[in-house]
Amino acid sequence: MRDEKKTLLETTKESSINGFHKFAQLWSLQTLADLPDRIRNLWQQLIGSYWFIPTTCVLAGILLAPLFLTIDEYFDREAVKEIAFAFTGDADAARSIMTAIAGAVLGVAGTTFSITIAVLSMASSQFGPRLLRNFLTDTPNQFVLGAFIGTFSYSLLVLKSIHKFDVGLGVPQLSVTFAIVMAIICALLLVYFVQHMVHAIQASHVIQDASNDALENINYWYSDHCDIQHHQDILQEDIKRFHTWPATPIYAPVSGYLQQIYFDSLITLTQDYGGVVQLHANLGDFVTDKNVIGYFYQCPPGHPSDQQKTKTSNLAILPRHPDGMFWQRFAACVRIEPRAVHSNDIAYSLGQVTEIAVRALSPGINDPKTAVNCVQSLTICLSVMMRRQPPSPYHFYVPPHDNDESKITVNEPRVATLAVITQTPRIADFIDTSLGEIRRYAVADLMVLKALCQAMTDLNYARVNSAQQQTLLHEITLIERAGIENLTYSELVNDLAAMCQQAKQFVHNEDAQHQHFRYLSKFATHINKALEVQSS
Question: Using only C-alpha atoms, what is the Rg of the chain?
Answer without folding.
Answer: 32
